Amino acid sequence: MKALRRAAQAAVVAAIVLGMLFAAYAWLRSRPQDLPWTPLDLAQPIGIATGGKLTALTRDFAQCRALLDQAGVRFQPLAAVTEGACGYADGVELQPGGARRIAFRPARLGMACPVAASLALWEWQVVQPAAERHFGSKVTEFLHLGSYNCRRMYSRETGPLSEHATADAVDIAGFVLADGRRITLLADWDDAGPAGAFLRDVRDGACDLFATTLSPEYNAAHRDHFHLDHADRGAMRWRVCR
Questions:
Q1: Which helix (H) or strand (E) covers residue 51, if one does?
Q2: Count of beta carbons in the 10 Å neighbourhood of residue 211
Q3: If you compute the radius of gyration of the chain from its CA atoms, what whole number of angstroms results?
Q4: H/E segment holding residue 7
Q5: C-alpha distances out from residue 195 to 31, 37, 92, 219, Å
C-alpha cells in the first residue's frame, strides 16, 4: 500500500514538473527576444538577449544592413576608413525618413552599423515612450557629440583605444522635443522633475541594448553625455551600465 502511495505521489510530482517545463518552454517560444540562439529582429520587443545579439553584429556587417532594411530604416553605407590602428569597415549614415523619425544635431552622423541598429531600437522602444510618458511630447532630435574619433580612452597618450576609434560608440548629449524644449544631461541630469526622470529612464533602457552605457553617475568625464558603445567582450558578452 505504501509503495502504491509513493508511486502515486511520484507520478503527481512528475506531472507537475513536466507541466512547469512545458509552460516554461511555451513561454520562451513566445519570447524569441529572450533566447540568445534565435535571430535578431528589430521589430521584436527588447529582451534579455537583444543587447548581446546587437553586439554580435560587429562581426556581421551584411546581416546588420539586412536588419536595417527589414525594419525600414533608411541608411547609406560609408566607405571604409583606415587611420593607423583606427578605422572601420561597417559604417553607415542614417538617413531621414523611413521607420526612424528622430534626426541628429549636428546632422550627417556616421557610426558603426550595430550602433545605428541600437539607436533605432532605443528610439522606438525607449526614448519615444519615455518622452510621451514624462512630457506628453515626442523627441524630434538627438543632440550628439559624435561617433568616430581616432583616439585612446579619455584621449590619453597611452592605453587601449576608445570604441570611438572604430565608430562603435556614440555620445548623446541631449534631446529636442516636438514642442521645442531641450533636455540635456548637463542642465537636467539633477532635475528632480520629469526631465531628470526622463534622462534616467532612457539611460536604463540603453543598458538593455548597448554593451556599454555610461552616464553622469559614472564619472565627471560623462557629466554632459551618455556614452553608448558596442565593445565586443567575447562570448560572455558582459555589459557595463553606470
A1: helix 50-56
A2: 26
A3: 22
A4: helix 2-29
A5: 32, 38, 31, 20
Cα gap 170→46, rounded to integer Å: 20
Burial class (CB in 10 A: 0-12, 13-18, 19+), 79: exposed
> Is 167 in contact with 197 (CB distance < 8 Å)?
no
How far apart, in whole angstroms, are the C-alpha atoms of residue 109 and residue 141? 12
Contacts 24+ apart (CB under 8 A), 19-23: none
Query: How many residues does the structure list for the chain?
Result: 242
Q: Is the pTM of this model over 0.90?
A: no
Q: Which three cell numbers stand for residue 222?
A: 560623462
- The full set of domain ranges for the chain reads 1-30, 40-241
- Output 68 or 154, whichever has higher pLDDT: 68
Interstrand relation of 81-83 and 86-88 (parallel, antiparallel or unpaired): antiparallel
The 10s digit of each residue's pLDDT in 185-213 is: 999 999 999 999 999 999 999 999 999 99
How are beta strands 240-241 and 182-184 bridged, if at all? unpaired
Is the sign of the CA dihedral 150, 156, 162, 164 positive or negative? negative
Q: How far is CA 100 from the centre of its chain?
A: 15
Residue type, position 148, single letter: Y
Query: What is d(CA 155, CA 162) in angstroms, rounded to the nearest whole number?
Result: 8
H or E element at residue 95: strand 91-98
C-alpha–C-alpha distance, residues 139 and 176, integer Å: 6
**Residue 79: half-sphere exposure toward Cβ, Cα within 13 Å:** 3
Residue 71, SS3 per DSSP: coil
